[in-house]
Amino acid sequence: MKTFLLKIVFLFLLVSPSLHSEAVGIKTLDAEACRVLVQAGEILSMNDLMRLVSTLSEGKIIDTHLLQKELLYIYEMEIAGSDGMVSMLYVDARNGDVVDPVVLDSQD
């Protein structure tokens, strides 16, 4: 019984971030959508993003997602620091400005 409950909790935790994202109108865009937006000059390329991260920290990008909320495009990046610590960084995909992730949670 305990194992069954743990499996239920685990499955809920796996699904809950996507449910939360959909509730606030955030979409995770796939690689093809990202390519189209980069070619159209709407957002920064991955090369631009890597140069930007190198100016902000000594860390390396280990994972990136392009999020869209209405007309706002945000790169969500997982950065591995030189000390081994992993942190999240949110950047406006249009201009490279660092963004507070609270912007994504607002209901505006």
Give a summary of the structure in a few sentences.
The protein is built from four helices and four strands; from the N terminus they run H-E-H-H-E-E-E-H.
What proportion of the residues is helical, as a percent range? 40-55%
Would you identify the regions where 5 or more consecutive residues have pLDDT less than 50?
8-20
| SSE pattern | HEHHEEEH
Query: Terminal Cα separation, in Å?
Result: 43 Å
Over all CA atoms, what is the radius of gyration? 16 Å
Label the overall shape.
Answer: globular
Oligomer: single chain
Q: How many distinct beta strands?
A: 4
Keywords: Signal
Signal peptide: 1-21
Organism: Amphritea atlantica
Protein name: Peptidase propeptide and YPEB domain-containing protein
Overview of this structure, please?
By secondary structure, the protein is an alpha+beta fold. It is built from 4 helices and 4 strands, in the order H-E-H-H-E-E-E-H. Strands 1-2-3-4 form a 4-stranded antiparallel β-sheet. A hairpin with a 5-residue loop joins strand 3 (about 70-80) and strand 4 (about 85-90).
